[in-house]
UniProtKB/TrEMBL annotation:
The gene is LOC103589149. InterPro entries: CCDC90-like. Pfam families: CCDC90-like (PF07798). Keywords: Coiled coil, Membrane, Mitochondrion, Transmembrane, Transmembrane helix. Belongs to the CCDC90 family. This is Mitochondrial calcium uniporter regulator 1. Its main location: membrane. The chain crosses the membrane at residues 128-147. It is found in: Membrane; Mitochondrion. It comes from Galeopterus variegatus (Malayan flying lemur).
Length: 148
């Protein structure tokens, strides 16, 4: 009887071992399946991250190129405006020089006219003074003759 019990116990141990092996295999398979599933999800996440990184890089490059182009356009526009302003300043400076030259000529003409007028008035004053002196002398001589 002990032998039969021993065999039954051994049989049960063998069954338990089989069940353990089956359970181990099924758990291992489940773990392996879960691991594969996680690997697949990880690969998908990695691909999504890479796609996002590529998209961000592309968007950044596009934004950078657009900004670079905008800056170049602004620089070109500012250069054109600066050139126009320089041309305008040169034109205004030339106009100012012409106006100054004309004003200088007018002043010189007026000064020359005033000098001529002053000389003319000087001569007229000298004539009137000389005439007045001669008139006074004539009157004085006339009075002198009358009283003498």
């Amino acid at each position: 009887m002990e032998e039969i019990t021993l065999q039954q116990v051994m049989s049960q141990i063998a069954n338990v071992k089989k069940d353990m092996i089956i359970l181990e295999k099924s758990e291992f398979s489940a773990l392996r399946a879960e691991n594969e599933k996680i690997k697949l999800e990880l690969h998908q996440l990695k691909q999504q991250v890479m796609d996002e990184v590529t998209k961000v890089r592309t968007d950044t490059k596009l934004d950078f190129n657009l900004e670079k182009s905008r800056v170049k356009e602004l620089y070109s526009l500012n250069e054109r405006k600066l050139l126009e302003l320089r041309t305008e300043i040169v034109a205004l400076h030339a106009q100012q020089d012409r106006a100054l030259t004309q004003t200088d000529r007018k002043i010189e003409t007026e000064v020359a006219g005033l000098k001529t007028m002053l000389e003319s008035h000087k001569l007229d004053n000298i004539k009137y003074l000389a005439g007045s002196i001669f008139t006074c002398l004539t009157v004085a001589l006339g009075f002198y003759r009358l009283w003498m």
